[in-house]
Amino acid sequence: MKLPHLVSFLQDHTTEKTIVYFLTCACVDFVSAVLPRLPQCKMLSVKALHGKMKQAARAATLSSFAEAPSGVLLCTDVAARGLDIPDVQWIVQFDPPQASC
């Protein structure tokens, strides 16, 4: 039920910036492909960011999200370490972080 709850949350915050953290690059790719296809998410600007992307693509995605007045950035914690993005209203941890032992 996590994905329906995420969709509902994003619907309620369409005019704000939200960063959603996922455990894997595959999760980021999957959700970034699914969300824009859902009728209730058509109005959202959805961007994906993860460590398997080329540096130029990551930089372009980050710049685009930072400059936008609203939107959703789906990312892994590895790709998003140390990011300083202005005006982010919401941080959502979709998956629990993986413990490193």
From TrEMBL:
Residues in Helicase C-terminal domain copies: 2-101
Catalytic activity, reaction form: ATP + H2O = ADP + phosphate + H(+)
Function of the molecule: RNA helicase.
Name of protein: ATP-dependent RNA helicase
Known EC number: 3.6.4.13
A Pfam cross-reference name: Helicase_C
Organism encoding this protein: Chlorella sorokiniana (Freshwater green alga)
Keyword RNA-binding: yes
SMART domains: HELICc
Domain notes: The Q motif is unique to and characteristic of the DEAD box family of RNA helicases and controls ATP binding and hydrolysis.
PANTHER family listed in its UniProt record: RNA HELICASE
Entry's family note: Belongs to the DEAD box helicase family.
SUPFAM superfamilies in alphabetical order: P-loop containing nucleoside triphosphate hydrolases
Top class in the EC scheme: hydrolase
GO molecular function terms listed in the Swiss-Prot or TrEMBL record: ATP binding; hydrolase activity; RNA binding; RNA helicase activity
InterPro entries: Helicase_C-like, P-loop_NTPase
Matching PROSITE patterns: HELICASE_CTER
Record's keyword terms, sorted: ATP-binding, Helicase, Hydrolase, Nucleotide-binding, RNA-binding
